[in-house]
Amino acid sequence: MSRPTPTTPGDRPVGRAPVPAAAAAAPTVHGYPRQGRRRELKRALERHWSGALDAAGLLGVAADLRRERWQTLAAAGITEVPVGDPLYDHVLDLTVMLGALPDRYVAAGADADDPAAAALARSFAAARGTAELAPLELTKWFDTNYHYLVPELGRSTRFRLDPAALLNQVAQAQELGLSPRPVLLGPYSYLRLAKPDPAGSGTPLDLLDPLTDVYADLLGRLASAGVEWVQLDEPVAVTGLDPAGLDALAGTYRRLSAVTGRPRLLVAGYFDRLGEALEPLVASGIDGLGVDLTGRGAADLDRLAGEHAPSGLAGLRLVAGVVDGRNVWRTDLDQALGVLERLAPRVGRLDVAPSCSLIHVPIDVGLETGLDPELRGWLAFADQKLAEVALLARGLREGREAVTDELGAARRARRPPHVAADPGAGRPGADRGGDAGPDGAPGAGRRPGRAAAHRARAAP
């Protein structure tokens, strides 16, 4: 693999220059439920596994659902769309793209008719097992109800990048006139969430340097495909990294930021506050930062909006997660807009987003039947959260007075007289359109804690 060339001080990566916050404020999302409004993807997977639907048919269903998702986002004013949605699990798809599946699964695709079918056969062998092979370990994605398939990595792992599936999604979005923003798990979190190869030696973190080279190669290929922004998620950054972990995280992004001709880099943390990771990430040379400002993540607000904010914020795109992406309740829009108004003077560009991907909530309150009308008005699933994000972006661009009526309506809907105000009381719609993890767990999870459930996996 050819090693990407670092930039010189006067050489800037491909992408958009920072613009005034008031002019640039736009709605965006980290992800959207991918199962379909009628659980089409789940049914297609089951048909494929039973032999009733071939690989081409399954991939066709997935492409149709992507188009539907992106059109929903575009209708909400979101034209920079997240791409890279998996069929089954995003960590598994990344492992496949990196060529890092354990060798024992490779033979599963030997009899396939074409490369796409072979790749699917290998993926599903790793995900579900075969008559001869156990699947990869399944564990919780932080403290959500989503589960992911744990990579097995060691010193003998040799990465072999094959981004064809991702590039196909990029091209599909571009054909629809949309701007694709690939969203991938970042290299540091990927390794921290992996486990050592049982048959090998060393630890996954031994691979950080070669894996960073692979990501640099991927950035170059995405730039060649016309991609302007790439989002790399680093949720491990919210788990309270020690100094060595912070150095490794920041060093990774210093190297990626120094790649010539790359797309602009947006690094996102979620489920909690970035805390001590804020400063090194901002200083690493990245172009954008996604922050969760709900729940405990709100503790980052004073750091970002205060007098001692990281100095690099002034030239940065900040994606402010002010709409909770993990609960099913309406946002306090007055409070969220106040947060945005505090941040706007501090950053080069301020965009409005949910706190994390919306895969953790159902799709649309309108699909619910039999609910108390006042309770229905208090709920916000993925589509309603899109509307909230769009409204907040408009309020930030045009001023609070431009959305006075909408703020008032939202205020009234949030506090009906006989509905409990406890956001943790019940999870309406958990089985109606939100994503399930690979084990079928419902998509509407609990409010985030400090990601304590994942400390063992993320520990050095």
TrEMBL record:
Compositionally skewed regions (Basic residues) per UniProt: 447-460
Pfam short name (any one): Meth_synt_1
Region of interest: Disordered: 1-36, 407-460
Positions of the Cobalamin-independent methionine synthase MetE N-terminal domain: 28-345
Coiled coil: none
Gene Ontology MF terms: 5-methyltetrahydropteroyltriglutamate-homocysteine S-methyltransferase activity; zinc ion binding
This protein's record includes keyword Disulfide bond: no
Superkingdom field: Bacteria
Ranges of Low complexity composition bias in the record: 17-27
Designated name of the protein: 5-methyltetrahydropteroyltriglutamate--homocysteine S-methyltransferase
Record keywords: Methyltransferase, Repeat, Transferase
UniProt keyword Membrane, yes or no: no
GO terms classed as biological process: amino acid biosynthetic process; methylation
